[in-house]
Design a protein that fits this description.
alpha+beta; Ubiquitin-like (UB roll); 26% strand
């Protein structure tokens, strides 16, 4: 029996370069399995592909271990945040308030 396959893309953007790989996987392949099959680990050996947050077309995938990919999906591997955006905004607001208080 011939196994049905689908085409997907796996993409990762590092600070200095980005890579998009086309991958053929069997129907029913999970997001994590598709990432492993893509060869992205060889392109970016510093990545822990089992732990990186991932998404499909900009929507975060909560259960990448069990969610199956669909034909044409673009799996995106996200970099970890260097700073918490809420904390950065809080610090910026505190700094602005301090500068305003000094002017008065």
């Amino acid at each position: 029996m011939v196994e049905s396959v689908i085409e997907i893309e796996v993409v990762y953007a590092a600070v200095d370069r980005q890579v998009l790989l086309s991958v053929t996987v069997p129907v029913g392949t999970t997001v994590r399995a598709a990432i492993a099959k893509s060869g992205m680990g060889a392109e970016f050996p510093e990545l822990d592909l089992g732990e990186c947050p991932v998404g499909i077309f900009g929507k975060v995938v909560a259960d990448a271990e069990n969610q199956a990919v669909q034909a044409g999906d673009r799996i995106e591997i996200y970099r970890p945040l260097l700073a918490d955006p809420k904390e950065v905004r809080r610090l910026r607001a505190a700094k602005a308030a301090e500068a305003k208080a000094r002017k008065q």
